[in-house]
Amino acid sequence: SFMRLLILKLLFLLTSMEIRSQIKVEGLEIIEQTIKEYQGFNKVFYADSSLDQLRYSDLLKSLSKRKYSSTLENYQKGTIILSKSELHYIKKQLKTSLLYKWPDSLFENSFRFPLDSLWATLQRNQKLKRPATPKEIHRVWQFMKPIILRNNEVALIFHINICGGECGNYEFSFYKKTYGIWKKWVQIKAGEF
Question: How many CA atoms lie within 13 A of 80 on its CB side?
């Protein structure tokens, strides 16, 4: 009957909303904000794997000390001194990122693909539309699960986005929450290619 069908549809809707709300990753809004800065509201293509062995090894090498300082684009200097336990925790979380798989539909208007299909996904995206502006370029993303420290006030993030064979960038940085807003604080390493 119509009423039974309506109830089933409502149950399905509520269940799917519940599943969507369970995809809560602390600090994920930093990644989402970064993606929007680079590509606006275009569809987000992201790798299912948080980190691969190559990136894990590279990031681990970058964590060889406890004090990091950097000057960002706005000429604000940031410094963080990690305790031994914080550094140990970060390294442990990095290792767990090797096994972490992102869920599907992580963002609104997004598509998850297997990491080993990164180049095929990029090539397919480039054939979709000739971009008129940098924000219209169809990028593919890989990012690690943010590592949250100091009572949810500091986050360590890594992301890489690729928009072609020699087009893309990466960032490994600490973000600091100030008045409820995450701001880049200390950059460990970053680059463009």
Answer: 22
For residue 166, the 8-state DSSP code is: T
**Dmax (CA) of the chain:** 67
Tokens of residue 101, six digits: 């798989």
Angle at 23 between CA 22 and CA 24, to 5 degrees: 90
How would you write the pLDDT of the chain (193 residues) with one tens digit per residue? 666 655 655 555 544 444 443 456 788 999 999 998 888 878 898 999 988 899 999 999 999 999 999 887 766 789 999 999 999 999 999 999 999 999 998 998 898 988 888 777 777 766 655 555 555 567 889 999 999 999 999 999 999 988 766 678 899 999 999 999 999 999 999 988 7
CB hemisphere CA count around 87 (13 angstroms):
14
- The label of the residue with tokens 């004090």 reads 67
The sign of the torsion formed by the CA atoms of 158, 25, 70, 169 equals positive
Coil, helix or strand at residue 103:
coil
Reference 159, options 147, 142, 173, 134; nearest CA is 142
Judge whether 142 and 132 are in contact, CB under 8 Å: no
User: pTM, whole model, 2 decimals?
Assistant: 0.79
Q: Which two tokens stand for residue 42?
A: 């275009």
